[in-house]
Write a structure and sequence with these properties.
Blueprint (H helix, E strand, L loop, with lengths): L2 H6 L19 H12 L10 H8 L4 H7 L2 H13 L12 H18 L3 H11 L3 H25 L9 H17 L1 H4 L9 H19 L4
Helix pairs in contact: 2-3, 2-5, 5-7, 6-8, 6-9, 6-11, 7-8, 8-9
Length: 218
């Protein structure tokens, strides 16, 4: 190769341990988050380790530390990623009652998609977390309570009576979470061959009916 060719040939940047090279080899934080989210669909949070996340993503474990610093910060980012997919603000095109119905559907769908998410928030980010993660999870729940409060106020008592928004949050989240986490108890009670998607739709409709009837003005 000529000297001129050598002079114009780009050199690859040196890579320090755990530091990604931007370009084709840059897997990015998003790939690691997606890997952790995938694992949380099937195994408890305590088993979602840095090495297991790296193995799922097909990267060196050092990249987890490079992008997030530690496992707790990565798990907090996963919780933000998953919960951000659910809309907690009433669509302006929907009246409050319809917005509540849609929100119940999305809550149940979110819990089914990420069945271990609430265990992650409680066990890893609150009980065993840091002041930062505890504050973040508290704010996440406060945002939901505020959503219910604003929704009820927007209705003004026309179709939904005034109730404690915190209690409403606990009922919707609790019912959705238990429906998913109690699947080993529920499945044996179903008729053989029951379509699980159809049964989920029945539960969603029942929960909506139960809540809306309970929230009717008296």
């Amino acid at each position: 190769m000529s000297k001129s060719a050598l002079a114009t040939t780009p050199t690859k940047p040196k890579r320090s341990k755990g530091r990604p090279v931007h370009g084709d080899n840059d897997v990015g934080a998003d790939r690691l988050l997606a890997a952790a989210e995938t694992l949380l669909r099937t195994i408890p949070p305590a088993r979602v380790t840095i090495s297991r996340i790296a193995q799922e993503a097909g990267v060196d474990p050092a990249l987890v530390r490079y992008y997030f610093g530690d496992r707790t910060r990565l798990l907090m980012a996963v919780a933000d990623r998953v919960t951000s997919k659910a809309t907690h603000t009433a669509p302006r095109t929907l009246p409050p009652e319809a917005a509540l119905v849609e929100h119940i559907r999305k809550t149940l769908a979110l819990v089914r998609t990420a069945p271990f998410m609430h265990r992650l928030i409680i066990e890893e980010l609150t009980d065993s977390g840091t002041d930062v993660t505890r504050a973040r999870t508290r704010d996440m729940n406060r945002d939901l309570v505020a959503f219910y409060d604003e929704l009820l106020k927007a209705d003004g008592g026309e179709t939904l009576r005034s109730v404690d928004p915190l209690l409403l949050h606990l009922v919707i989240l609790g019912a959705s979470d238990f429906f998913v986490s109690a699947d080993p108890l529920v499945t044996p009670l179903l008729e053989p061959g029951t379509d699980k998607e159809a049964f989920t739709a029945r539960f969603n409709a029942f929960l909506v009916d139960l809540l809306l009837n309970g929230l009717k003005p008296r």
